[in-house]
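input
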Amino acid sequence: MKVFKFLFIALIFLNLLACHSQREETLLEIPSASANEIAVNERLLSKEEIQLERGMQWTAFFTAKVLQDFPATRSEVVNLIHAEEQTIRLEDLLGPSTLAPTFKTHFLEIILPYFDPQPKPTEEEDTPPRPIIRGQAKSEIDLNPLKPGGTNFNYNLEASLAFLASMLEENCVVLFFPNNLNFDYGFSLTSTAHPLTLAQENLGILRFGPHQIILEGTKKSIDVNVNQAYVNDGTNVIVARPTRNILHTHCYYPSLNLIHFPNFLNN
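output
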């Protein structure tokens, strides 16, 4: 009788242990959402993701430069900002059927010096990290202002084409203006990009207005850390970020499926 009682207790114990082990295995197989989020936030970006983040940084940087240097482009951009989402599709600014022809013309003009194979270092402005982009252009893009014979044509046109192809054809990118745009006297512009993690901050470039440069004796642009507090100060901020589009397979971004891109700097 004692032997039977012992076997019965042992059987119950083994059954509980098996259930506990099965539960642990299940928990290991299905990580919690918070664990996944931590992994996305702390993981290293792939080469393709690094290239995308860097390309978006430069896209926002070039946009700020055009708006700062060419007043005629400002109304075009402001009129294209979606009232609710506060975004503009990059395709609408730089695509073949651009809705901002003046902006596009100046954008294509100013980018070429930055693609010089041996860019000269300058103390006048800070820029996003280099190299801007690697690889070849996949198709011909309308670059009417850059026909042979133009003053900038001796610069690295091929790299410029690769950059535009990456942003317009290989990705879906929007520009986000969390504070819309304010072009009051002496205005400044800050450009940045989505970090492609769950972080709520990233490197940015603050571009000073001409009057600020004269009065304060500062460089044209400097590195800054852009976070929600920075945005909440009300300054002009331009954020380049990806957007998912089910109609284009290259815009699924499956490796970033836990990231909701519109949440960045949008609280």
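quick obs: The radius of gyration is 25 Å.
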